Target: Fumarylacetoacetase
Amino acid sequence: MSSLRSWFSIPRGSHFSLANIPFGIISTASSKTPRVAVAIGDHALDLEAFAASNGFSALSTIQPHQAVFSQSSLNAFAALGRPIHSVVRKYIQSVFSEDTTYPNVLKTDFDLQKKVLVPLKDVKMHLPFKIGDYTDFYAGLNHAYNVGVLFRGPANALQPNYKHLPVGYHGRASSVVVSGTPIRRPNGQVLSNPAAEKKVPALSPCQKLDIELELGAFVCKANNMGEPVPIGEAEGSLFGVVLMNDWSARDIQAWEYVPLGPFNAKNFGTTISAWVVLADALAPFKTKGLENDSEVLPYLKEKDEKTFYDIKLQVDLKTPTGNSTTISKTSSRNLLWSFPQMLAHHSITGCPMQVGDLLGSGTISGLEPGERGSLLEQNENGKTSIMLSGGDERKFLGDGDEITISGVCGSDEDALVGFGQCVGRIEPALKM
Amino acid sequence: MSSLRSWFSIPRGSHFSLANIPFGIISTASSKTPRVAVAIGDHALDLEAFAASNGFSALSTIQPHQAVFSQSSLNAFAALGRPIHSVVRKYIQSVFSEDTTYPNVLKTDFDLQKKVLVPLKDVKMHLPFKIGDYTDFYAGLNHAYNVGVLFRGPANALQPNYKHLPVGYHGRASSVVVSGTPIRRPNGQVLSNPAAEKKVPALSPCQKLDIELELGAFVCKANNMGEPVPIGEAEGSLFGVVLMNDWSARDIQAWEYVPLGPFNAKNFGTTISAWVVLADALAPFKTKGLENDSEVLPYLKEKDEKTFYDIKLQVDLKTPTGNSTTISKTSSRNLLWSFPQMLAHHSITGCPMQVGDLLGSGTISGLEPGERGSLLEQNENGKTSIMLSGGDERKFLGDGDEITISGVCGSDEDALVGFGQCVGRIEPALKM
Ligand SMILES: [Ca+2]
Ligand SMILES: [Ca+2]
Ligand SMILES: [Mg+2]
Ligand SMILES: [Mg+2]
Ligand code: NI
Model:
């Protein structure tokens, strides 16, 4: 794919090239009301201000809907549907392209540029969607296998249902936060001696605080209750993708999760990256996922197998002393089930999906030791230590540790489609 | 408790005596915009219209907030806090009492009575809250024990964590519906031969469609992320209670639920009763729950043990031929954990609770065969049949079956505090 050249200065290597145009919610010191923007290079284009100054004069389809850009979430814009997202993205690309056919919209209007283009360092990012329901899947086959081996041995590592349906559970929507929000170490019930016959739990700060490297996808089309989303229409119900860190309290989880699944171990915080990369922008990076050697039921069978994304993912851990170590590098193609499959399965019962619902992929791990998306897998459930630069070691996360997930598609430094970062730092537990 | 006498005609035996004053969301043929009302006898008092006609003239505290009564959900009213709910309820009771000190507010204003008092048969009820997150607990000890015996035998019926923490899981908020909404039998993956070594699932209409008799409680106070709700403050964070039927697809659940808990088995519909009975109205019916013979950690320990409600619950099944059978009668005191305990546990990690969040109690069963809150327990997971009047039999629900849950506190027919009904009828599965 040849890169689009722009009259606007977009730094080489930027995640937000003209090939991307991700959407997010910003506010600024001078205008504190959250509103819709796109990222271009190291600037945000304030779409509320752009629309108010007649920036969409050459795009008649969006004009009746311009109020969506003044909303404090992307829900209203997303609800307009994939074809509208597509024309808006293409229009913005054309406005910024070197040989734009609309030079007077922005290229030659220096006053407007000053008004609507805000350096990213000066914007505050907000949660991009008002999330009605959040569902976390478990589609990372290598992760599920690694964890299964730790707890049940290699013969029974995967449950019998694993390759037949995208295993998932309902998560907690209220604790999904935007990148940069501090995460407080949770208190909860843990067993100090899990092997003891008589189980005696104590209330304690979580001692096995972990990360989960995931993708999140946002729904942009509702279905009526009782009417499943057919697999062939599922892709068209997905708005775009973010990076996600599903913080996990392994010791709380081990004690609580039988028989109804993880609860408190997962409800204290889930961090997502701030800029939502549109499905359209990711289309050139579609690829096959992991091979499923089971027969998949028709309601989950996709015509096109290339419904996964090849996003280069990286996880960095920075200790309170400032030393940073890359602890994982992998690709998001390491999934057994695609987002369209998750959506088709989720709704096969007639479950009503709503605009702004968030689907988590499950932890993404590759096959190699350096490709694991959770500390649990890296330290074999606490048996070994993870060596960090600067001589530090970790089993699980310490107070003050900062986790940064980054993700990017492509190799042309002038046409990257990236997600920026998904960052969270651990604060000490509340004294109980 | 002596009954409050009213100048207004409230039928003897009404669930909505002057001792109750439950809140709900109504619309009418002549005014289709949903708004807040209370139920009194067999009428709804339209609080939007009442406020607009200066009905709250003698209650200065509510006057700056009267816009809450024009909302399409109770969230804004609930967010005003327990002291305000209390004064509004007491004011309405005093307006309706025989010897009201405000006779000209309504008692002697016949025109206003016509305007604001609508027969319940002429109102359409809506979902009372905009539910951000819905969490379903499992606090019905007898139910958990009965189900445990069916699947694991009496020795291991309860998991080791059961008496130490209120087991719960995050549910699906988007499919919580108001009483009367039809429930379509879900399709999903089931094993036709669960005992076979090689597990081969098929897509099928659920064959083991079940009910779960539960209470639901709504949250009226948010906590900041990272800051647990102390057990001593949890009761003050609860708005009120509804009846709940947590429809469950047992065959889908059996195949999907390991290791992350029920998902599709629970996301196709959860029915709640339309009128929310305030915590204040239930206060006279507080009682102890089931005894917990484990040592409970301090963050779950309540000063007062009487934090459960003695609500007489009943489940009726009506077949398509019109025969109706009472299939269960029990009391809501059959719980091991109270709603304040559930809230304290839910938030101990710092999970942010929001106004409008719904907490489900878990299935409520007594000790006797006629007191079981699910068909699964009644039919011993399909081994026996439930005999219905008119000669019908059931293992699980058939198409066209209608389930009605009712619940009421008290025995003075002029001072009942009841919930009305929680009704749902099963529609045939969609042909796939
Ligand atoms: Ca996860
Ligand atoms: Ca339940
Ligand atoms: Mg999480
Ligand atoms: Mg349900
Ligand atoms: Ni009347």
Observations:
- Chain A touches chain B through 64 residues (CB under 8 Å).
